């Protein structure tokens, strides 16, 4: 019973984090869309949903993609100068020092990142779906 309750609590906490991230991103995107509509689209030649929502949705989807790539291991690289050996050093030494803290293999670091990916995807789709319906 204890394990099942812990898993339910962990799942509920993950859902809360996804919803919180989605609401924050949606609110920020909506604020940017309203500012864009007020200042850039002053004469109202275009609908706010047509272009602004489409661009914000694409931005969030691209952001989710880059977060996913970082989670996939692209963000776990180290520059040789930061490792103290310099650029011209022993290659074996560089490979040993490539992940000194084990950050690439740390599963606790990857879980919040996948929640950010999911919330960015949801926020991007919340902006992109209305824009696609208006464009059609």
Quick overview of this protein structure:
By secondary structure, this protein is mainly alpha-helical. It has helices at 2-39, 48-74, 91-96, 107-135. It is elongated.
Overview of the structural elements:
The protein has helices at 2-39, 48-74, 91-96, 107-135. It has 136 residues and is mainly α. The protein has one domain. The termini are far apart.
Mind sketching the topology for me?
Blueprint: H1 2-39, H2 48-74, H3 91-96, H4 107-135
Helix pairs in contact: 1-2, 1-4, 2-4
* Largest beta-sheet details: none
Number of strands: 0
| Structure classification | mainly alpha
N-to-C order of helices and strands: HHHH
The oligomerization state is: single chain
Query: Number of helical segments?
Result: 4
Beta content comes to under 5%
- Distance, first to last CA: 51 Å
Radius of gyration: 21 Å
Mean pLDDT: 77
Shape: elongated
Q: Residue share in helices?
A: over 70%
| Low confidence ranges | 78-83
Q: How many structurally independent domains?
A: 1
